[in-house]
Amino acid sequence: MFNDEHFGMKEKDIEHFLDVTKFKTVDSIQFGRHYQEVWYFTPLPHEFHVQCLYICDFCLHFCVSKKELARHTEKCAVRAPPGDEIYREGTPGVNEIAFFEVNGSAQETYCENLTYISRMFLEHKNLVDYIAVFFFYVLCEVKEDGYHVVGYFSKEKNSESERNLSCILTLPFCQRTGYGKLLIDMSYALSIIEGRPGSPEKPLSDLGQMAYVKYWTRQIVDQLLDYKHDAITFE
Hints:
Blueprint: H1 11-20, E1 28-31, E2 34-37, E3 52-55, E4 62-63, H2 66-75, E5 84-89, E6 97-103, H3 108-119, E7 134-143, E8 146-156, E9 163-165, E10 167-170, H4 179-194, E11 199-200, H5 206-225
Parallel strand pairs: 1-3, 9-11
Antiparallel strand pairs: 1-2, 3-4, 5-6, 6-7, 7-8, 8-10
């Protein structure tokens, strides 16, 4: 009776249906010493359609087998993201972290692989955007053998809409460690340095929404606890 095969479905519902019914191109990843099941379909190049994708957690090189990763590891001299270290804190050898600013136009392969990894765990991550127009702020744990990536956020170099963050990801095996708060903190710190207000790109992912609600709830509570006057009103 109806020629429209999607009769009764809204466009957003159709997009969601098509996303969740796609076969995952890779089932899991081995990222350094961490093994993690992939959550969502990722449009990886065909040569990387494997059950488990092995990733060097220093240079983000993709390998299709343990043997290939072992060969790569023997030759790989990279020990940090290919950008400028802009921040460091913590006790050396204990809980030290560092931020690197990576230029998308200068390090396209590294940043492209970073976006592929984020798409594995962010359902609506957009891979169409031109990588060259973004800076990538990569958060790392500092270990004796180098800088291990735990998360990142991207930011447009020249955003007319004053967005201070485009995409944010804490790797699943590094969540619930406070790294999400650090990433958001850095995005606002950069806005302060630039002397202009900023906010994340909308709409936020489900995980992003949770992270920002938790972040701003904590900020408001801290302000209230530090309030020194006798009374306070909503005004």
